[in-house]
Amino acid sequence: IDNLKLNYDNVTRTTSNQLGVDIRIPGWGDPLVVEYIDPSKASPGSYFSDIGNMLVNDLGYVRNLSLRGAPYDFRKGPNENEEFFAKLKTLVEETYAINNNTPVTLLAHSMGGPMTLIMLQRQSQKWKDKFINSFITLSAVWAGSVKAVKVFAIGVPDAWEFRKDNEKYQLDFTAPGVEVHCLYGSKVQTVEKLYYKPGTAIDGYPQLVFGDGDGTVNIRSLEACAHWQKSQKQKIYYQGFPGIDHTNILRNHDILAYIKTVLKV
């Protein structure tokens, strides 16, 4: 775990790997690198594998042709992922071209939702109308998570500086301008508030108050996509699935069936 740690420099406003550690994101465009986040392909490393297998076996998608993967360094904020945004746009255009000019459906999970949103916000409506069919999001973290705030509040002294570096992305919630299918879990106990009793130091341990969400992301954040309904002409579909947590949404049968229905059309 220590090898994955990022060191933040509040003078240069950038992060760096641990001394002597070089981390690279393999297999750009290859769906297998997001279907399994461990090269052994053992079940603990399974990520998009259930969705990938369903698309290949049931709908006839072909890996590295009609089914692509777009991995990125999840440790870094949008301000340090400029290369990802450029490469994702190019990957969309390439996939469109090699599939007889067929518009692309984007599928993202968790922080992949807002990361993909940033890419879409940067494109013209003409580009989106040509290249994008729809945007399916699973457990997208549209408006943050109190669970993440808990980690920062208890043990990351530079968290506020890091937040300031990415504040412009957090404040821009412009609609994507494409059809959206926003799916998320609900009715799972999720940290909603951090309550510091009078006299408790900020570096002390607050009382955790729980509310609705998917166990990681709060319901207000998960449902934030609904705000786009009045901001764009393209359809916004959003649906909560009770009892499904933040990661199990990737292998839930109801979710797979929903995705299958959208992509059959």
TrEMBL record:
InterPro entries (UniProt xref): AB_hydrolase_fold, LACT/PDAT_acylTrfase
GO molecular function annotation: O-acyltransferase activity
Species classification: Eukaryota, Metazoa, Ecdysozoa, Arthropoda, Hexapoda
SUPFAM superfamilies per UniProt: alpha/beta-Hydrolases (SSF53474)
Protein name: Group xv phospholipase a2-like protein
Species of origin: Lasius niger
Pfam family, one: LCAT
Single Gene Ontology BP annotation: lipid metabolic process
